[in-house]
Structure formats: C-alpha cells, structure tokens
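Example 3.2
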Amino acid sequence: MYDIKALYEADSVQDAIRLRLEHPEAQIIAGGSDVLVQMREGKRAGKELISIYMIDAMRGVSIDEEGNIRIGSLTSFSHITRDPLIQKYINVLGEAVDQVGGPQIRNIGTIGGNTCNGVTSADSASTLHAWEAVVELTGQNGTRRVPIKDFYLSAGRVDIRPDEIQTAILIPKSSYENTWGYYFKYAMRNAMDIATTGCSVNCRLSADKRTFERVRIAYGVAGPVPMRAPKAEAAAGGQPVTRETVEKFALTVLEDIHPRDSWRASKALRQHIAVELADRCLTESVKRCGGEIDG
C-alpha cells in the first residue's frame, strides 16, 4: 500500500503549473518508477502527488525549426530506443536508456523523471551531458532553457523553480551533426543494476577521418553529479586519430573526475575503470564515425 495524502491529475502543461502553485509541497509524478518505490519505502510517505502522466503533448521525439532534436519529458525509455530520429542521429542515447532496469521499467520510466531525480548514476545522464543537451522548463512566466551541466546543482538536486515542470530535453544540431558515440555502463551484473560508473563518448572526425575535429566525454558516478571531462576533451580535439591520442585522452580524465569510495566500489577502482572506459568508448566512437585508429 502507498501512503498518499492526495493525488491531483494534470491534463495540460498549464494545468500542471497551476497545481504546482496551489500545492507547493506536492511531488510531481510521471511514470512513477522512482517516486512510488520511495513512497513504499516510507521516504515520501504522506505526500501529495501531482501526476503529469496524461499530458500527451509532452511525449514524442521531433526536430524543431532550429534543427534541434526535441525529446518530450514524458517520452519513455522504450520509445526513445525505438524512435527513428534517435536511431538515425543519436543512437547512443537509445542504447544508454535501454540499459535502465528491465522491460517493465523502460516501458513506464521517462527521460524527464530520469533527469529530474538528479542522481549521478542515471543511465541517460552521462550521454545527455556528452551531447550538450539543453533542458526546457515551463512555468507561469513562460519557458526557459538550461544547459544540462547547469541543471544538475548537487546530488539529488536540480534547477527547477517552484512553478515549473520540465517539458522537454533538446539535443542541439551542432552537437549531433556528423557525430557518433558510444556508452558503456560498468555494473556488478549485466541487468537490473545501478551503474558503478557510466561513460559516454562521442566524436566528430575530419573529412579524411584522420583528425579529431572534436571529442566529448561525460561520466556518471564520477562525482556528486554527472560531469564532463573538459581537459580530456581538449587533449584529443584537433589531434590525429592515433593510439597515442586515445591513450592520452583516457589518462587525462583523471584530472577532471572526482569519484569517491563507497560500498559499490573504491575511488581507486572507479578511477581505473574511468580510464579504461574512456579508451574503449572513444575507440568505438571512431569506428562508428567510419574511421580507424593508427598505431
């Protein structure tokens, strides 16, 4: 049984904003794969809930007038994995969210819920950071857009104002055009497990496939929030596509990340994994770009 004080169902974005203002202590619920579990554990017992699950306008994947890929916040993981636009332009995001839980979770869980939880281990988070995603938030004064690196404030805390709901996630055209990537989730078992470390890399190669025009890398569980590794990116950008460049890139991530000791893994193990995953993910990204690493 769930200890719920009251449940309000929004039928539009504006209705959800109104309910948020009328019930400032209420918890937003989408698919419920996280919130209901927390309620059953007693962490949110007696809470009011505002369900946004019936707002169909917040579902689906499209390309807007600026060429950005727009993913509605209520789009399920299963939908993202199967969507033709995702498969064509950022297939790595579909691959990443396909590692969330089991089939039932992926059918009900949403990209918005996964990011709004603010947890560093979310399987979508490192890929969204690596692809420089932008979070769309809608409130009583209109819509604002926040780069995902600024959306995550601290562990479990994100930049959502009291009158706002997250309505979409945007992947800029400048981030996905002619770019290919790879995500690796390292966990203690292959299914139904939280990542010990997650790494997402993408790269864009020159026309002759011999130079890294740009490289992006982001981690989950390498710090209190998902994070990019800018020094590592700079170490590879503009450099030749060689084994030496890949190895330097992988080692440089240690200058950027801040893993901690926990019961899941020690700091030293996470650092070792981070270097290995950076190498593997960039190597695979080069292959997906149609390139080959010299040396």
